[in-house]
Amino acid sequence: MDKPPQGKHSTKGLGKKMPLESEYVKWRDDVVVPCGKPVSSNVKASELMYNEYIVYNTAQ
C-alpha cells in the first residue's frame, strides 16, 4: 500500500503477534491499552511481526 484510503492519513498494519488480551489495561474507565505478553494473532499473511500504525505524511 503506497497511500492511505481516500480521506485518511494513516492505516493500521496487522502483525503476526499481538498482546495477550487478558493482560490489557483499562485506563481512566474508557481507554483500553493493549499491553501484555506477545502471542500469535490470527493474521498469517503479513510481513509485519507486530501491529503498527503507518502514517504516510511524515510532516505530521
UniProtKB/TrEMBL annotation:
Domain of life: Eukaryota
InterPro entries: ARTD/PARP, Poly(ADP-ribose)pol_cat_dom
GO biological process: double-strand break repair; protein poly-ADP-ribosylation
Residues annotated as domain PARP catalytic: 1-60
UniProt-recorded Gene Ontology molecular function terms: NAD+ poly-ADP-ribosyltransferase activity; NAD+-protein mono-ADP-ribosyltransferase activity
EC number, UniProt record: 2.4.2.-
Entries under SUPFAM superfamilies matching the protein: ADP-ribosylation
Pfam family, one: PARP
UniProt signal peptide: none
Keywords noted in UniProt: Glycosyltransferase, NAD, Transferase
Cellular component, GO, one term: nucleolus
Protein name: Poly [ADP-ribose] polymerase
Organism: Trifolium medium
